Amino acid sequence: MNELDAAGITEPALRAAYTACRRINAHYGRTFFLATRLLPARARPAAHTLYGFARMADELVDNPSPGSDPAAELDRVAAMVDVVFEGGTPDDPVLVALSDTVRRYGLSRELFDAFLKSMRADLKPVEYTTFAELGEYMYGSAAVIGLQMLPVFGTVGPLADAEPGAIALGEAFQLTNFLRDVGEDLDRGRLYLPAAELAAFGVSRELLERRCPDPRIRAALAYFVARTRAVYRRAEAGVALLRPESRPCVRTALTLYEGILDEIVALDYDILTRRAVVPKRRRLVVALPPLAAVWASETFRGGRRLRS
């Protein structure tokens, strides 16, 4: 069954808005889009939409159009979020779909305000001293994404019981991004890896900006990789609290995203001038078995028989 039909989305303009979000996820999402294929069909449009909203804001900050003002663009998005939570219809397809998703799943305004606050923090040069400081930023940039997705995934018990795992899920992915993109972020005037933790290994921002192999940088990055793996373990512990039909999606996303850490190690932590990427073959090896299971389940549930 078509995802939109499965979700009961029938109004043409709303279907077009959700389709636009799906295109954004398919274009940019890569790992996340592949994982969303494992969700029940009825849940996929909301997942595409939450990704689409986050990506839209992220692109305004990271890749602004020539001559545009990212701060003004974020203010425009915030104004449309106001419209969403006032029950109106925003003048943007992503926000139109978001408005419907917010109502369907009862998502909190605070989650979106916190996200936009962190996006605004990226408008100026970034450097964090401690993990405590970084944690405040990551609540808005990462933890709230996990919390937004939690009602879409569904839980087997009270939502609050699953929130720590959802927060860890967002943080694990975000910390992985910080490591994978450390070179690109330096180009944008940002350094998310806490300065005090780097200094413990004799690493400064200036040393990183030289982009030369250095045993001190390698040791620091190895430490950050190990620390991030511990966050993945916390996220994995929360998977059992999700509805069974959502678990393959989350497990696959965790496996694929942690695979980026494996690629960083395989590069011997030489990632200041190149990007660690999980090869397509590995992504398919991880995702195809659960995808086949989901496809077979949906096929039989729809009353169709498989033919040889």
From TrEMBL:
Pfam family, one: SQS_PSY
Example of a GO MF term: geranylgeranyl diphosphate synthase activity
Keywords annotated in UniProt: Transferase
Pathway connected to this protein: Carotenoid biosynthesis; phytoene biosynthesis
Keyword Ligase: no
GO-annotated biological processes: carotenoid biosynthetic process
Tree of life domain: Bacteria
InterPro entries listed in its UniProt record: Isoprenoid_synthase_dom_sf, Squ/phyt_synthse, Squalene/phytoene_synthase_CS, Trans_IPPS_bact-type, Trans_IPPS_HH
Identification of the protein by name: Phytoene synthase
